[in-house]
Amino acid sequence: QRNNRQKQRVGRGQALFVILCLFKLSSVTGQARYSVPEEQAEGSFVGNIARDLGLDVARLKSGKARIITKESRQYVDLNRDKGTLVIKERIDREELCGKTTPCSFSFEVILENPIQLYRVTVEVIDVNDNSPSFPKDEISLNIVENAPAGTRFSIERAFDPDVGINEITKYILKPVDHFKLEVQNQPDGGKSIEMVLQNPLDREKEETHTLVLIASDGGEPHRSGTVRIHITVIDANDNAPVCSQPVYKAEIKENSPEGTKVTTVSANDADKGHYGEVTFSIAHVTREVKPLFEVNDKTGEIKVAGKLDFEKSNTYQLNIKASDHGGYSDTCKVIIQIIDENDNVPTIQLMSFANLISEDSPPGTTIAVINVDDVDSDGNGVVKCSIDSDMPFKIESALTGYYTIVTDNVLDRESIPEYNITITVSDQGSPPLTSRKQINVKVSDVNDNPPEFHQSEYSKTLPENNSPGFSVFTLSARDADSGQNARVSYFLEEKEVNGAAVSSLVSINLESGVIHAVRSFDFEQIKSFEFNVTARDAGSPPLSSVATVRLIVQDLNDNPPQVLYPVQTGGSLVAEMVPRSADVGYLVTKVVAVDVDSGQNAWLSYKLQKATDRALFEVGLQNGEIRTIRGVTDKDAVKQRLTVIVEDNGQPSRSATVIVNVAVADSFPEVLSEFTDYTQDKEYNDNLTFYLVLALAVVSFLFITCLVVIISVKIYRWRQSRVLHHSNLPVIPYYPPRYSDTLGTGTLPHVYNYEVCRTNDSRKSDCKFGTQILPSTITP
Questions:
Q1: Helix, strand, coil shares, percent, the chain, to 5
Q2: DSSP strand pairing (208-217 vs 191-197)
Q3: How far, in Å, CA of 656 to CA of 647, rounded?
C-alpha cells in the first residue's frame, strides 16, 4: 500500500509539473518543464516533447532534432521517431543537487532548417532511498556526578541526503530515566540536538549509562538510523566553559590557500587546574564541510583545510564545541562568508552551427546559436558577447545566456567566399577575463553571375581556301560563380549568311569554345560575315551572354590575271596596224587584263616577253600600252609578233601571256596579202587532217550538186560585180568589247575605224586610217 501511494503521488507530481511556456524571443522558440522521480530505469518515459511544443514528428526528423547540454552527463535522450523524452542514465538526486531544493537540470532541444531552440527543464523528485546516519556509531560523554538538573549536552545530529518529507523528522532517546531530548531548529535549516539532564547522577550507584538515539525520516517506507551514547559519571566539576560569543562571523576569499586563518574563537572556564582547561572541536557539520576547515584544539584558531569554491557554496556554518576535562561544554556558531573571486573564464558553447550559408540568404538568417556562461557571481559573472564589426554579421541576445549570430547584410561569394568569425566573451570582473572562439563560415554559390566575354565583339581573319575543320580561334567566357554555376557551354545563334545557315559555315566546340570552319572559304564569293555566340552556364536557371564574331576571309593569290583585250581566238587573226610614218611613242594598242583577287594580289604589271624586233616596241609597266620606241623604217618587217606577259603582285605571283600581232604597213591590202598567206598556211597546217576527212565525206555530194553550184556561183558573181562597180562598200573590222577595269588601270583610251576599198579586178587595195572619232568610255 505504501508503494502504491508513493506511485500515485509521483504521478500526480508529474502531471502538475508539466508546464509549457511558448514565447517569441528571437531564435529561442519555447520552453517546456517536466518532473521525474529519481532512480528511474533507463528508457523510462519523461514527456511527449513533440506534443507539448506543438511540433510534428516529421519536423523533428527533418530538423535533425537533438539534445544539447552544458553538463558532462546527459540524463535524458530524445526519441525522434516518437517525439518523446526518455531516461538515458540513472538520476541520483542527491548526487546531482545535494540538499538543494527544488532539484532540476536543464538542456536545450535544437532543430535545424530553420534553426529553432527550445529550453527544457526537468525537475528531479526525491524518493526515500537513503536512511539517516550519524557521524559516529558511538558517542562517549563524561558527566560529573553533581551536574545540576537542566544541564545540556550537545549531540551531533544525524544526516539524511534526502529532502522534504524524506528528511529526518524526529529523534527518539531511549531510555529517559535521567535525560530528555530537545531538538531546536537552526537558521541554516538544520537542527541542534541536546540531551537535558532531568535527574541528578550518582556515581556510587551507577558509574555508566548507555542510551540509544534514533533518527527517523518521514518517507514511505520510513527509514531510521541509530547511535549509542555511553555516559561515564565522574567526580564533580563546578563550572562549565562559556564561549566568548555565541555567534562569530568571518569572511574569506575563495581559493585561499590551505592554512589561511579564518577567525579565532575563545571560551572561559572559571575552574582552576585540570578542569579549567578548555579544548575546541568542530561539531555538527556535514561530510562535505568537515574537510574544508580545521580548528586548533588549544587556541581555537580556525584555518582553511581544503579548497573553497564560491560557486559550490557561498557560506558555511561551523559549530565549535568548547569542552573542559570535567565533561562540561558550550557550543558557539561560526558563520563564514565566502567572497567570490573572478576565477572562472567565461565559456562559449556552440549549440547549433551552420558552417555553409547560401549567398542569397536574406539579412537576419541565423547561422549559429551559442551559449555563454560564467559561473562567477555579481559583476564577475556578467558577460558581454561580441563579434568582429567588419563583417556582414551581427550578434543578438536570444535568451539569458544565449546568443544568435545572424546575417546583417547581403552576402556575395564572388567577393568574399568565407568568413572567420571570432566570438569574444568578457566578464566584468577586475581584471576582466576573456575567452574567444573562432568559427569558419563558408558562403555557398548561387547562380547570380552570367558568363562574361572579354569583349562584346571579336574580329578574326582566316585565309581563303582553308581546309574544312580549320581552327579559326578560341572564344572564352569567364563565369565568376563556382562549380556547375561556372561551367560554361558555347552555342551558335542560327542565322543566314548569303542564303546559307551559319552552322554550314562555322561550328563551335561546346566545351572549349574553339571555332572551326566547316567548309573552305573563297574570298571571291564571301569576303566576311558575322554571327553571334552564346555562352551559357549550367546553373539553375541558366544565365547567358552573347558576343558578336566577325570573320574576315583573307584573300590569297589563287587567281591568275585574265586578258580581256586583245581577244585570243583559235581560228582568226587580229592584227594592229602601224603606219611606216609613225613617230616615237606611237600608241599601237593597249593590253587590258583584270585579276579577280584583291589588294596587292590584283596589282598587275605588263612586260614584253618576246618580240620580232625588241628595239621597235615597248609595253607600259602599269597600263599595258604598247608604243613605238623609235621611228618606223622601210626596213622593218611588215609582220611583227609581240608576246606580252601580265603578272600580278601576289606571293607567289601568277601570270598570263597574250600574243599581239602588229602589221607595219601603209596600206591595208598589203597587210591582207601578208597575213592571208600566213593565215592560209597556218590554217592548212592546222586543219589538214580535218579537210582530208571532210573531203572524203562530201565527194559524193559535190558530184551530184556540181551543176547547181556552178550555176549559182555564176549568178552570184555577176550580181556582186554589179554592186561593187557602182559603190564603195566598207568592211567593218572586229572591235573588242568595252570592259570595266576595277583596279583603276582603265580600258583602251581610243577607238580606231578601218575602211577597206576593193575593185573588181584587183586584189590589192588602199588602206586608209581614219582619225580618232571619239574617246572611249568604259562602262560596267
A1: 15, 40, 45
A2: unpaired
A3: 7
Cell of 738: 568595252
Q: What is the DSSP letter of 363?
A: T
Q: What was the pLDDT predicted at 670?
A: 63
Q: CA-to-CA distance for 219 and 68, rounded, in angstroms?
A: 35
119-130 CB burial, b ≥16 within 10 A, e <16: bbbbbbbbbbbb
Q: 335: which 3 cell numbers?
A: 558563520
DSSP H or E stretch at residue 87: strand 84-87
Backbone angles phi, psi at 368, to 5 degrees: -155, 145
What CA–CA distance (Å, rounded) separates 601 from 597?
A: 6
What radius of gyration do the chain's Cα atoms show?
Answer: 65
CB 642 within 8 A of CB 662: yes
For residue 438, the model assigns a pLDDT of 93
Query: Three-state DSSP class for 491?
Result: strand
CB 445 within 8 A of CB 481: yes
Q: What pLDDT, in 10s, does the model give residues 725-766? A: 554 544 444 444 443 343 443 334 444 444 444 444 444 444
**Of all residues in the chain, what percent carry a pLDDT higher than 90?**
34
Q: Give the C-alpha separation, 718 to 723, whole Å.
A: 9
Q: Which amino acid is located at 763 in the chain?
A: R
> How far are the Cα atoms of 459, 475, 545, 601 from residue 455, in angstroms, in the given order?
10, 10, 11, 32
Residue 331 has pLDDT above 80, yes or no: yes
Q: Which long-range contacts (CB under 8 A, 24 or more apart) does 251-254 make?
A: 251/336, 251/337, 251/338, 251/339, 252/304, 252/308, 252/336, 252/337, 252/338, 252/339, 253/308, 253/338, 253/339, 253/341, 254/308, 254/309, 254/310, 254/338, 254/339, 254/340, 254/341, 254/343
Residue 200: predicted pLDDT: 85
CA nearest to 486, candidates 462, 519, 518, 452: 452
Euclidean distance between CA atoms 650 and 54, whole angstroms:
90
φ, ψ (nearest 5 deg) of residue 618: -140, 160
What local confidence, expressed as pLDDT, does residue 398 receive? 67
What average pLDDT does the segment 642-663 reach? 87
Q: Checking phi first, is residue 599 left (phi over 0); if not, alpha (psi -120 to 50) or beta? A: left
Q: Which region holds residue 90: left if phi is over 0, alpha if psi is between -120 and 50, else beta?
A: beta
Q: How far apart are CA 545 and CA 541, in angstroms?
A: 14
- Read off the C-alpha cell for 716: 552570184
Query: What average pLDDT does the chain have?
Result: 81
Q: Which of 472, 495, 612 is nearest to 554 (CA)?
A: 472
- Kindly give, in sequence order, each residue whose CB lies less than 8 Å from that of residue 562, ignoring residues fewer than 6 positions away: 593, 594, 595, 596, 656
Rounded CA gap, 380 and 314, in Å?
A: 14
Average pLDDT, integer, range 104-111: 88
- Measured distance CA(263)–CA(302) in Å, rounded: 5
Digit-coded pLDDT (tens) for 273-306: 777 889 999 887 777 888 999 999 999 999 999 9
Report whether 596 contacts 683 (CB < 8 A). no
Q: Which helix (H) or strand (E) holds 466?
A: none
**What local confidence, expressed as pLDDT, does residue 616 receive?**
85
Distances (CA, A) of 731 to 486, 754, 758, 767: 83, 8, 10, 11
Strand, coil or helix: what is 356?
strand
Beta bridge partners of 108: 68, 119
Which three-class secondary structure state does DSSP give residue 683?
A: helix
CA 641/CA 573 separation, integer angstroms? 12
Query: What three-state secondary structure class fits 7?
Result: helix
Residue 134 near residue 225, CB atoms below 8 Å: yes
Single-letter residue type at 318: L
